[in-house]
């Protein structure tokens, strides 16, 4: 499992990308991630704070999933015009959530969502959701061992190396190459001239895994 503290020390969250599959495995009360509008949040502290309270149930039901349908393109909760209040209130068909409880009911206590609501709080953000995941083979010329990883298209070679470290703790001591050319570790696969051919293969009616580049 990725160590959050070490990860955030190494990369600013704006440079860290996650695959939907990375998010999906964090689907428990003690390990709860969600994604929405292209960002990924670790809501484990929030879930712990609200444990045994009904507001946490919608989050637990969606743990490890994308909840973009809850929000508009600006990252605000979707709203509707309340038939009695005649004003816009958060749309909560899934039930109350942390920082918003029974906001669909007419009440003199109604007020806007707090500015520090969890979906606006950067302390929960741990990165961005990749726009495209792609496979890459990593071949070790010394041991002749090969492994295929699915990585984020936005990740640099150095970040791909981080994904590979659990399989080879000496990976940092190696020279990383593609077709004999030394790779720039601060650039992505695409920026290093390694094209993603999935779309070309689909257009030709061929399996996407017919060609996987090897580093």
UniProtKB/TrEMBL annotation:
Residues 15-83 form the Cytochrome b5 heme-binding domain. Its main location: cytoplasm. GO terms for molecular function: metal ion binding. It is found in: Cytoplasm, Cytoskeleton, Cilium axoneme. Gene3D superfamilies: Cytochrome b5-like heme/steroid binding domain. Keywords: Cell projection, Cytoplasm, Cytoskeleton, Heme, Iron, Metal-binding. It comes from the Eukaryota. One of its GO terms (cellular component) is axoneme. Belongs to the cytochrome b5 family. Radial spoke stalk protein that binds heme under oxidizing conditions. Required for the coordinated beating of multiple cilia maybe by functioning in a redox signaling pathway. PANTHER family: CYTOCHROME B5 DOMAIN-CONTAINING PROTEIN 1. This is Cytochrome b5 domain-containing protein 1. It comes from Panstrongylus lignarius.
